[in-house]
């Protein structure tokens, strides 16, 4: 058999190998063509690669025994199947796991896994930091911001499945608290760091891959994108990705929402509600989730609760009341539990079931809006240690 490629030019030795995780089928075909794989073979090879990568979770080409040895070698010379590097793994007393990940350029993001008895939810990040400055969110205080690539977004799912042994034939290193079912990750939420609709293309490509029935096979119904309300992108997201949608509402009056979620000044509540009403495929079985963070004496009055149910009256909706998760220096306090219950009762009476989201992983700073704090603290202490 002849070699598949010309000798590798010298400069290729210093340029890092490309990761195939996160490429779609046409892109994989293109890479194979670049290696000299004849066109008539490309379809089959793509199918094989796809299955090894996304069904079996292969992390190297050597395992791909149905692919010719020589091609496996060539693939290994040019590409990788690596995941983002894990800097720390923390496990909460409630079983929640948080991974601090380092990307190729040294930037860091976090991914959180929340196991329950019958399901497991993975909360993934879409950006390093966030360009928006919601006043109650710690991620918004970070300065360094960049979009994650599709590979880095899909990579978070792959890595979580590696760590909890969620591939066929694999076993978790630490099975504590994992769900009973066969699949350990049943749901994915884009509720980690970043505003996903500001990284539209990469997040969409990643979701399309995650939902692929011949690969990771997470149905679109089990993927939820949370947005602070980037109104013009909402219809496009519905058409091109069609996942479930969550809206970070947090206030029912523009004056207050302008303060809490400043992007509201650009796209106020009425525009946001119009976009929600028009979201494709809405029905009682496919509802929009409205997230509402409970801030003491800010947005937690009974009048606010009544205004909330009124605002959502004609939209197939779920309401998710999120107890505010504090972070160092946060300018808010979480509403008193009694007040959350009173607020929830109004919401409940209007027909919304179990509206309060129980905070998970607070002890490891993995709860909503806390991401990044622990790592910042850790770095500060490392710095101190280094200068001591
Ligand atoms: N940027 C997107 C997705 C990430 S934030 C968005 O804003 O929707 C995920 C959810 O956590 C949002 O509803 C956000 O408002 C909420 N959140 C942020 N900080 C929080 C905090 N400190 N306590 C509770 N929820 C918070
Ligand atoms: Fe960004 Fe969402 Fe945090 Fe607002 S709540 S700063 S949009 S991550």
Provide keyphrases for this structure.
32% helix, single chain, binds S-adenosyl-L-homocysteine, elongated, binds iron/sulfur cluster, 9-stranded mixed sheet, alpha/beta, 388 residues
Describe this structure in words.
This protein has about 400 residues and is of the alpha/beta class. Helix content is about 30%, strand content about 15%. The protein has eleven helices and 13 strands. It has a nine-stranded mixed β-sheet with strand order 3-4-5-6-9-10-11-12-13, with helices on one face. A two-stranded parallel ribbon has the order 1-2. A two-stranded antiparallel ribbon has the order 7-8. Strand 12, helix 9 and strand 13 form a beta-alpha-beta unit. Helix 1 crosses helix 2, helix 4 crosses helix 5 and helix 9 packs parallel to helix 10. The longest helix has 17 residues. It is elongated, with a radius of gyration of 22 Å. About 40% of the residues are buried. S-adenosyl-L-homocysteine binds next to strand 10 and strand 12.
């Amino acid at each position: 058999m002849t070699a598949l490629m010309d000798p590798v030019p010298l400069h290729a030795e210093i340029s890092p190998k490309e990761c195939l995780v996160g490429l779609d089928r046409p892109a994989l075909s293109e890479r194979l063509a670049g290696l000299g794989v004849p066109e008539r073979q490309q379809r089959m090879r793509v199918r094989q690669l796809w299955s090894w990568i996304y069904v079996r979770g292969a992390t190297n080409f050597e395992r791909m025994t149905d692919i010719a040895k020589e091609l496996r070698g060539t693939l290994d010379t040019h590409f990788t199947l690596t995941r983002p590097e894990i800097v720390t793994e923390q496990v909460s007393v409630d079983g929640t796991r948080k991974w601090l990940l380092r990307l190729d350029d040294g930037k860091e993001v976090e991914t959180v896994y929340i196991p329950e008895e019958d399901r497991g939810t993975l909360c993934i990040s879409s950006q390093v930091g966030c360009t928006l400055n919601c006043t109650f969110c710690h991620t918004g205080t970070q300065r360094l911001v960049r979009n994650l690539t599709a590979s880095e977004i899909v990579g978070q799912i792959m890595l979580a499945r590696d760590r909890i042994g969620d591939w066929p034939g694999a076993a978790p290193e630490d099975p504590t608290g994992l769900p009973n079912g066969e699949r350990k990750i049943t749901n994915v939420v884009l509720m980690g760091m970043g505003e996903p609709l500001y990284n539209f293309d990469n997040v969409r490509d990643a979701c399309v891959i995650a939902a692929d029935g011949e690969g990771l096979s997470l149905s679109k119904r089990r993927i939820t994108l949370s947005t602070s309300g980037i109104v013009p992108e909402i219809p496009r997201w519905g058409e091109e990705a069609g996942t479930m949608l969550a809206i970070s509402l947090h206030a029912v009056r523009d004056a207050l929402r302008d303060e809490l979620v400043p992007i509201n000044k650009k796209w106020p509540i009425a525009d946001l509600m119009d976009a929600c009403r028009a979201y494709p495929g809405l029905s009682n079985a496919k509802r929009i989730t409205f997230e509402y963070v409970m801030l003491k004496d800010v947005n937690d009055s009974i009048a606010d609760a009544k205004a909330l149910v009124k605002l959502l009256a004609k939209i197939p909706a779920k309401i998710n009341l999120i107890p505010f998760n504090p972070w160092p220096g946060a300018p808010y306090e979480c509403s008193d539990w009694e007040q959350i219950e009173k607020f929830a009762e109004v919401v409940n009476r209007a027909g919304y079931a179990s509206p309060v989201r129980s905070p998970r992983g607070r002890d490891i700073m993995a709860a909503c809006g806390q991401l990044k704090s622990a790592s910042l603290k850790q770095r500060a202490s490392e710095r101190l240690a280094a200068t001591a």
